[in-house]
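Morning!

As promised:
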Amino acid sequence: MAGYNDRTLEQQAQRILNDVADQGRNPKALMERLASLRIEIPSWGFADTGTRFGKFLQPAAARTTEEKLEDAAEVHRRTGICPSVAIHVLWDFPAGWDPQVAHRAHELGMKIGSINPNLFQDQCYKYGSLANPDPKIRAVAVQHCLNSIELAKEAGSGLLSLWLADGTNYPGQDSIRDRKRRVGECLKQIYAALPDGMTMLVEYKPFEPAFYHTDIADWGMAYIFAREVGPQAKVLVDFGHHLPGQNIEQIVAWLLDEGMLGGFHFNDHKYADDDLTFSSIDPYAAFRVFHEIVSADDPDHGPADIAYMIDQSHNLKPKIAAMIQTVTMIHELFAKALLVDRQNLAEAQTRGDIVAAETALRDAFFTDTRPLVGAARIQMGLAPDALAAHEASGYTQRAAQERAARHGISKGGSYA
Ligand SMILES: [Mn+2]
């Protein structure tokens, strides 16, 4: 069976690339596209986080922002495609901008990526942030976003990533239309402070923490808000933020076609927003999303400018290993999407040959792409098996010892 440690890995990769050449395509361009993928990893994926019922502590978990950056750097060191880290403002910069953190990121060869304001944790947000009926609370929330924009400028980040936990728990609790207008007004104020080149991402989620209505519940609502404020605002699709049965790839295809897909949050779910490892439950659904993304590549202008980000926090898996596993799964599925013979597919679609069209997708999906990802890593000067290289490095054991000595043993607690 093929795998990352197989001695014939490069030969297997060559066989796949020969097939690509036989289809009249350029295997070198495919390998370059595979190596050019960039995935942003979340700082919160390395801390002791978990469910609202409790979290299970890991001795190697990062306790400080610097430690989160060090762990992220370990993921990048093994995978070669994760040079930036998403930041959660209150968790990573509780006292505001800290040049020490930026200095550490620079030392590690890492960049600070998307800046995520926190509009759900403080007591004042009990009835919402940007949708709150009290204008004083809305002003607090807007000011936090303005501070986050300043922080993004300091960090050299081009992304302000907004997710609102706003909503109501009971019918009649508040006016749905008034709340919509309040959010729109606040977003305009935040947008006005964006510098040139900074993108505002608007994320949506159908429910949780609100259980009756959520103020930005689906892609249409996020799209309306983004369109309303201006061209630097785009929609952020989080894979886990959909109700069961939702055709996520169709949403991705529509947003791509409208030029409104700004970012994508990778994770997987079986029931709701479960934060499971991307493609651990339904790899074919994940593949179909990548298929739409690659299908939308512009022959003249290349791929769309989409921020690919992981949004997972693991309560049970070791955190760095889980992140490397996720990045590897993303890379493998992206490789499968690159393998789709699009000319063959288009011809089958034109002649109405449904079986051949579906087969074009299935042929790519069922190709073992581990040799291609392994070969791409070898070309980058890395070990083909990122997870094995990480485990052999002893990084986690060292981090556990050093961090226990530095901070003592964690006592546990609630989420985040
Ligand atoms: Mn998300």
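The pocket of manganese (II) ion is lined by residues 163, 203, 238, 265, 311 (CB under 6 Å).

Hope this helps with the figure draft.
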